[in-house]
Amino acid sequence: MLVVLAAVGGCGTLPERRDEVTAEVTRFEQAVAAGEHGRLCAALAPATREELEQSAKSRCEQAVGQAIEERELEAAGAVRGVDVYGDQARVVLERDTVFLAHFPAGWKVTAAGCLPRPQRPYACEIKGG
């Protein structure tokens, strides 16, 4: 079983990867709470940032600022659960679910402001294409 987890999990043990994901989401949530648009944009996966800029027809910093202002993206509270599957992760918080992917530069947010919908995919305010 350990061999399978190492092969699927890539670098680091599963607990290490969960810790990395949790730390990244915590930094992301702190940036949301502080309104630090540049940090939020830096935390986004490239496709997510591109999709956000295209849909908002503005630069990332302005688009995230608008999402915070309109309360589409707000501080989501404490982490309730972390699932890591290879290079993908899901973090369930008190008032949000955030999805991440692992890139050479580390974990990046692929979707945020996500709410579960029964028998359907999550509805996310910020997501990649």
Task: Provide structural commentary.
The chain is α+β, with helices and mostly antiparallel strands and 129 residues long. It has a single domain (2-127), classed as Nuclear Transport Factor 2, Chain: A, CATH 3.10.450. Helix content is 44%, strand content 31%. It has helices at residues 2-9, 14-34, 37-43, 46-56, 60-69; strands spanning 79-85, 88-93, 97-103, 106-117, 120-127. The chain has a five-stranded antiparallel beta sheet. Helix 2 (14-34) packs antiparallel against helix 3 (37-43) and helix 3 crosses helix 5.
Main traits of this protein?
about 130 residues; five-stranded antiparallel β-sheet; 5 helices; 5 strands; disordered N terminus
Number of helices: 5
The biggest sheet, with number of strands, parallel, antiparallel or mixed sense and barrel status, is: 5 strands, antiparallel
Number of strands: 5
**Any idea how many domains?**
1
**What portion of residues belong to β-strands?**
25-35%
Return the CATH architecture.
Roll
CATH class identity: Alpha Beta
Mean pLDDT: 88
Regions with little confidence, pLDDT below 50 for 5+ residues: 1-9
Through-space gap between termini: 34 Å
Rounded radius of gyration (Å)? 15 Å
Strand order of the largest sheet: 1-2-3-4-5
Shape: globular
The secondary structure category is alpha+beta
- Kindly report the CATH topology: Nuclear Transport Factor 2, Chain: A
